[in-house]
Write a structure and sequence with these properties.
The structure is a homohexamer. The first copy, chain A, is α+β, with helices and mostly antiparallel strands. Chain A is built from 11 helices and 7 strands. In chain A, the strands form 2 sheets. A 5-stranded mixed β-barrel of chain A has the order 1-2-3-5-4. In chain A, strands 6-7 form a two-stranded antiparallel ribbon. In chain A, a hairpin with a 3-residue loop joins β6 and β7. In chain A, α5 runs antiparallel to α6 and α5 packs across α10. Chains A and E meet through α3, α5, α9, α10 and α11 of A and α3, α5, α9, α10 and α11 of E.
């Protein structure tokens, strides 16, 4: 859409392009002159922007979550880049695709989707296969499933994030089926694929990622059980007891009531799904926290509220040296 | 069914009748002679029974949860009554109705049901009225709803217990609609009636009251949401947003995640329903604990695990005496 | 006191009147010129005010919690109203009544008090009646009781708030006496009236509502028990056991140790009082949170720390439409 | 009272004496013959006793908590001593003093009381001294204070236990006044003496140690505040603020709401009192657990519910050996 | 050792062999005759045994945890098998190997050990390889490591249990190294092998599995850190920072302070190790709970205290039926 | 180092001296002119400083934690003092000693150290004495031990803080050895001296007090156990069981797992050490909170996060008045 991404900006360059208005404030200098303080976003990052002239006239022509076209210059201010904006106007609907302003999974969405489809094809239990087919032959669902984020923040927060997390969890479960005896692999892999489907209705990308009303009032666990129920209602031969297993695995996949599951996992596949899901989430949270770290001088990240700890930026240099060299 | 209830037995009387076998053990005297130690139950209580002769031959002719016909004598042993059983045989199916061995609500079930129906008739919101009608015109549902217990133990544990608790909660909500401004009375009363309907599938009376498999794996909250969803699916005009309110009120009626609700009540009617339900449950637990107390010498009940406290058997005599009398 | 309330201000109007100084800061423009940033309050709300001229001279002539008389103009600044103040001086003691700057219950205090007196008259137990009379014939007490707030913030925060909460709780208990059998109505209603009396000494209105020293060090529960004890000491016929019940109901009315009651409610009336009190508090908190919401564009309030949740601004429009209309 | 204490019994000896009936059960041999199974207690311990003859006739002539006079023989049965009782009758009131059946503090009660009195004499603050005098010149109080137990079980469970714990806590506080600067020693020592006085009404020795009704409904913290309040009411010059400090120190001495104090200690003396009290309690609990241990073969005690751990029976032999010896 | 294992006993057969005395009680018949009630154990299970004759003489000739040789008959009593023992004597030390009375891993210990050695060989980091070699070239360690149980009860409770759990965890970590980018596979796999080594000193098999004194006082986490420290002290080139990573991964592998780790995992490999370890433990607990279930009539296991839930014995029959068949 | 300490500054005085840069921000006036906003620190406190001229040129010549030499004037701004800095340059290494910018214990470090040495000399157990000697004859250790802080913030935060806390705890334990019978005084006092030694490696003063990497990853408890282990390894006669007691007392001195001790204190000396340590910490926290209080108008401090409460600034005047005077 734009020639240059925010992550590529350098001091002194002129920028002309469309950006999402992440936030907007009308402030006043002490001399009484109003100015606009904006935060602009594209899919690669965010930058602060100032409009010093005509702020009072402009500031009601657009609002947060709108896209605007700007003409400005990148300047260095107190060690950070910012944009001094000379001109701006709201973008026209046909000029921008709001989803272009949101981060996308670093993995190719279509490839990930094909990988999920391969896993679906590997299921031998006819009922579970039929259930998966009911979802994956439903284009409304697959379209939403491919683009949804896995969370509002915290983990896998991007277009394709749900797909990325689902694929990783399902593959981990596929391995576990070989690692542990006695696991019903078809049930485990099927539910790894379906455990978070309620998120396609729990979250919306507008382009900010947010909870929907139904998402906030019911949560993706209940929504997921409803979605599965609707599909199974159209599969008359689906065994009722298997349906209950399927519903229980969605219900219990957060592990305990404190974390949103009113029932703990009550059989082995449910427990394994919970733990595979949780490991995948925690690994992503930690990687994200390290990637977003901005202070190269400290070996520690800032305190992470969800993890309830600081993380150590483990050095790697010392561990790949042979004893001889380090002794030398 | 029997001429005499267990609660009416007195020392020395001969008893002939059918009783439910609550538990059964084959024991042996030191002299090597086997005897049977039974606990028998009718809807008024339980009594211990011993079979001293022919125990080895008899003990495989029936099992726990069966009904048996006995002929025996009530004896006093160490301050408690017990039955010395001379003869017994399994009851024939046409001799007994297993539900006769279970406690029933002390209130008339049909009258309570009529009272609920009157509350249903008072609902003016056409969608909520239609939803209630969908349930109350469904005979399978009303049959189950009228007989179900409200819990396996703890509170309203009897045939008709669910009905009794539902009616009490709904009436309390009806009052609260007048007590507090700004409450949507139709929504509150409707959901007071429907909040626990999942219990008709969560529990079964066989005649012991127990969780069903689906009850244990999903719980009455999720089952209730599914039941409501099935009815609303057949009401094409039901507003989607109202549906979400209805589902949320079932989901949140336990108040917090620790108590089984993954979402807290997020609007006023949901909060009020939760508190009305909880008050009704706690009042019944306390009354039950006092009624089941067996030690008249102590002003305290035994420790109640669910309440996490002992209860005080508050005296009443002193408070209805006039100052003159007590001074006299 | 003033001709216009803060809640009625509109852009451009001139304001002359007395206001409470809620907070005061001396700041400086970049050009080195000092200015005053005030928050002013009357009983209907708050507004920001700026003094651009003579700030250095004025700012030590009054302090927070003082009243000042101002002459200024209402201006619109960044979507919010603020006062540009040309002149101000401290109010004279005889010009203002500090309590006029504090919110008052929306219900008439004298009417509420009469309603409480009626409830007192309905008590038949002579000891409890004597105890209530001892309080309600004590003018120091009734004066304080009629004006006290029920809390520093959170719920029923206003002059008359304690009275409003007490009346609502007592009436709810009056209803519950008819709803549940076996309740000692005299004891329950008496204690509903007395449960929070310690708040008349726990809180003070100066005119900010704050904890007193004794309030913070002992809390209204212990203070309430002391106040009841002093009255009972002058009622020689008061049965000691009834006194203990009375004291226990105050002690346990917060329900559990985490919430400030070292003893849980140990008999039915104590439990019911706790729950009636708690329901009344929670209903008021939710109504307040909805009333104070300032963002009409979102269906959600901001996160409420005491409730530990966001609240949903439930729409009402859809639920009062008949099926025919919505289908049309 | 008796010639021999239970702790001195040896196999084969004949015992004639009075004992407290701690528990009593009427059982039957398989041959149908009833016998009595008793647990008898004196202040040194407990022993099991059997009555094989005439049990049915005897067993209603006395009950638990009564004293009986017995004539029997000590026998060894499965590694434990027990009494075979040939004859028994209820003790006459003038034959026994029930308090003789309860453990007494191993320290001399009168000496401990004198030590407390010395501490009282050391207080220089006239108000606090007057408050202490009000208690220690009240014979009803001193009589109860000298004999009361400090708890029903767990710690300092004996006649004189409250005195022992109070003296130890007060002396520890006396030391801390020298250890830390800035402590108001008069206030700290006074409150160390008074912090648990509510226990004289919370517990009763009948001769089993149990909670009184008022003890269970209010607890010793509230009772203590009431007792202090009654004394201060008769000291017209007592400064109100000092009274609040005194009451707060009783209120907060359990440290946090979970442990029964609705207020945490809010100034230094209150915190120090809480910690001195808690240390004294925990030291006694641990000593008691070690003293009551009955399994010399294990280095571990059984799990202690109040401490939530097992204790290690630390060996001492190895630590008093010099390096030379252990090396030898 | 014996011809027949306890798990193979059938009614009526004569048994001559050595068994471990799990518990022993001297009881008396009502006729006053003493008898012995034993629980005997071999590595396949437990059985109750009675000695009716000569019990008083025999019962001091052996104690719990001893082995005895018995001659007896298997009888059916109240639906369970038990041994009536005619003769018994303590086993001679050369007749039995106490470890034969304890369960062994169902996997071959030498094969598992070879698998661990292969993993060790795959480590390329020379420091970590040197650390592992220091352990695996230490025969005292390898001997203990091969036979140790992984816990006293709960999970992997058998000879070889530690090896089995270690191998499973290490292989899971090996997979995760391929599943997630950015993991230091050498560090992760090394620590998967070493994370629980402290258990070789924390537990002892005597042959009952129990905590050692040092195990109870310090725990396997601290012991493991000490063991690793001793080895590293002899590797002069070992990088100090890598040593800290190694120690931290042992310290944090229980995940949080409540579960025994004073530090949470602070880098990615530590988090992944914690979760791999925890998954392996939980899978074994669930499998064990299902395997030990004794009630085929219920779809539920009994309540599992460590898991804090009941488990569902998930049926499998219905899920392997094709839609056509189930429809037919 | 400087002529005047920050705590002595008064309005209008000129200041020339070296200060530590606690924080530094480059800001811009509305007119576009950059200025520096600094926080400067010496061992007596902190002050804000502004550089209005040449900020852009200067601001990269030094960074946080550097010392600078400044020339400026103290001004009063909005009731607080601040420095207007005319000139500044980085301090030369030989001009300043960074430790001079950090607070020091108010007690003499050498005297405290001598007091600790006296306690060491009083130990009679030869093994414990040898262990203490191993530390106190190790100059690297004693140097670090004398200067270390006891914490990063919260308590005893200063050079010599560890020594001060250790001495106070050890003396309290010395007293407790006389107060309670049955305590092994040598073990208790030895471990009071050694319980926190891990802090010499957990914290560093640079001159800000911060966790080291190993401190954050392992914590002072594990480090302390390692340090003790290294010394004991060189004492071949040290009894292994005594070593375990020593290690356990370090491990358990935080009392419970939530507070960082994976094992609770399992014998009396360990429990007493935990409580003596905790009392000393809490007394210091409370004194610090009162000393740092800045609002003389309120009887309450601000909320203290670690204590989870506000503190009452207890008045003393009223309590030292005799009854006669106060009555007068």
């Amino acid at each position: 859409m734009n020639e240059r991404n925010i992550s590529d900006f350098s001091e002194g360059e002129r920028v002309v392009g469309h950006f999402l208005v992440q936030s907007k404030q009308l402030l006043t200098t002490r001399a009484g002159k109003p100015y606009l303080n904006l935060t602009l976003q594209d899919k690669t990052g965010r930058i602060s922007g100032k409009v010093w002239d005509g702020a009072a006239e402009i500031h009601d022509t657009f609002k947060g979550n709108d896209a605007i076209k700007i003409d400005g210059t990148v300047e260095l201010y107190n060690r950070e880049l910012q944009l001094t904006i000379r001109r701006l106007r709201p973008s026209e609907p046909d000029e921008v695709d709001l989803s272009d302003f949101v981060a996308r999974s670093s993995h190719d969405i279509d490839e990930m989707f094909l990988d999920i489809r391969s896993l679906v094809e590997s299921i031998e239990n006819p009922h579970l296969k039929a259930l998966l087919d009911a979802f994956f032959e439903d284009e409304d669902f697959t379209e939403a499933f491919k683009t949804s984020s896995a969370a509002r923040n915290i983990h896998h927060v991007c277009i394709g994030g749900l797909l990325e997390h689902t694929l990783s969890t399902a593959r981990l479960c596929e391995y576990l089926t070989t690692h542990y005896e006695d696991l019903d692999g078809d049930l485990l892999i099927t539910m790894a694929i379906l455990h978070d489907i309620g998120k396609v209705k729990e979250l919306e990308i507008t382009p900010a990622i947010n909870y929907t009303e139904v998402g906030n009032l019911l949560g993706h666990i209940v929504i997921g059980i409803q979605m599965v129920g609707e599909k199974i209602n159209r599969l008359p031969d689906f065994p009722p007891q298997l349906r209950t297993l399927v519903e229980h695995m969605i219900l219990s996949h957060h592990g305990q009531s404190d974390w949103g599951s009113p029932r703990p996992p009550m059989f082995l596949e449910a427990e394994v799904l919970h733990r595979a899901d949780d490991m995948d989430v925690k690994v992503d949270i930690i990687k994200r926290a390290l990637a977003e770290d901005r202070d190269p001088d400290s070996p520690w990240t800032t305190y992470h509220r969800a993890l309830e700890r600081v993380l150590y930026k483990k050095p790697t240099y010392e561990t790949d040296v042979s004893p001889e060299e380090s002794a030398g």
